[in-house]
Amino acid sequence: MSNSTIDSGVKDGVQSVSEPVAHDFLQGFPKLIQAGMGVRISSWKLAQEASRLGALGVVSSVGLRHIVIDEIRRGDEDALAIASTFPVKKYVEELLKFAPGGKKHKSPAPLDHPDPAKGDLPKRLSTICAYIEVMRSRLGHQGKVGINVMWKCSFTVLPSIYGAMLAGVDALLCGAGVPMELPDIVKRIRAGENMEYMPLSGTGNHVSFDISEDFTDESRPVYKMPALMPILSNFAFPKRMLDVWCREYGGIKPSAFILENHKAGGHNAPPRNKETYAEADDIDTYFDKVKALGVPIYVAGAGGTRTEYLQWTERGAYGLQVGSRFALCDESGMRREIKDQIIERNASGEGGIVTDPRVSSTGYPFKVIMLPGSISEQEVYEKRKRICNRGYLLQSHFEETADGKQVETYVCTAMPATQYAKLGGDPEETLGRVCLCNGLMSTAGVMDLNEPPIITLGTAGLEIKVKQSARDIMEDILTPETVREMELALREA
Question: For labelling, which of 169, 364, 419, 483 has a CA lying 20 to 30 Å from the CA of 404?
């Protein structure tokens, strides 16, 4: 398999990211985004199909280090073939140690670690795993592909963006936080410069990634400039982001804002009054103010039907991002039996969703489907053995030693209380927290986990009462004629 997405070139061939993104950057971009959801819900299979049909297909970056390593461990031929095209030999050799016959075939994937001697390997593995996921999603069509990078999974932000850009990703969608440094990250990757942020905005975490030795000046790739799409949920952050990006990054602007209503699935921005969502939190109250900033807008979490699509595009949105309908479609990575159970309960009127302010260790509210046998049931929650063995939501914690030195450890409130306290945290913070890493992996059925699932959908997910394919959804929103024309155009491109 040849790596057709990477063109080798000299350093001078790298376009400066400081050049402003033109207002017509999205010209020709799809009007519909298949959202990047959960842990492998938005898998390469779903993104590939959505892109082939004319949407912006999006993969999720969360958990890829464990998921792709598990595929490599099982000898997945396609994953192995794509891994061999990664342009830095060291990364390939480290990943293939987990393949059948490799020295680490039975070893667990390493966790992120504050000690560089232990933390650099997880970063490199996260990079090549993101590369493989994006490359797989791009096979067999000429459509657009993006990656959703969850800002709160801060230690994999830099590796995920790096790996995706090496795979020629078309768009970076960044949310669950405020991706203020996104232009600088892209600029440094394109220039082959090391990255360090203390902290990464909105996380409190010190993150870094040394990439300067990966290529010589002569071998450095000429990266495609991806669309930069922050996911935000109010007017204040788009306004502030536009000011900061224009002032500090040479006039660059976001390619588009994805405005996410609080009815969307997964993590939601906290309510303005800190207690319950009210009119001030609804996208309808701030959409026009964000539109006046002059940046194209996709609307998310406002429903996923043609009615909503027409309503928002007529109001001035560029397009719609749809999540919950795609999460339950045939091609999504959610376990088939879980999809069927949710659809059946919706049809019988038994479906239910709660916005839990405490379940996520991020501190953000998180929408949870109430489903028998899942961790949404108190009995199931209490029986689960608490363990933190994936680590995607770890947070930096600093302690001062007796000799005055600052020591960094990584903690997560979903850890066992005793472990959390030993690392310097308040055990009271662990009450009610759920391990989203293991719960969401279980929902996707990856890694053969003996873990109860946790399922998240937006409120629109309760309206899904029949099985649907990705094509069904796109034809419903964009009309069958539009989808067929898109598919034909992509095949001929």
Answer: 419
Q: What domains does the chain contain, in order, with CATH numbers?
A: 29-349+463-492 (3.20.20.70)
Residue type, 124: R
Among 32-36, 372-376, 397-401, 426-430, where is mean pLDDT lowest?
A: 397-401
* Cα torsion angle, 475, 480, 485, 491, sign: positive
The least confident of 1-15, 409-423, 447-461 is: 1-15
| 57-67 mean pLDDT | 97
Mean pLDDT taken over the chain: 90
54 three-state secondary structure: coil
H helices within 112-200, ranges in order? 116-138, 157-166, 182-191
SS3 state at 178: coil
* Residue pair 180/244 in contact by the 8 Å Cβ criterion: yes
Alpha helix positions (H), 58-181? 64-73, 77-83, 89-96, 116-138, 157-166
Residue 310 — φ and ψ, nearest 5°? -70, -40
pLDDT for the residue numbered 493: 54
Q: Which residue has the tokens 């001062």?
A: 400
Q: For residue 159, say if its preceding peptide bond is cis, omega within 30 degrees of 0.
A: no
Inform me whether the pLDDT recorded for 41 exceeds 60.
Answer: yes
**Residue scoring higher pLDDT (397 or 452):** 452
Q: What's the Cα-to-Cα distance from 364 to each of 177, 203, 337, 361, 405, rounded to whole Å?
A: 9, 12, 28, 8, 31
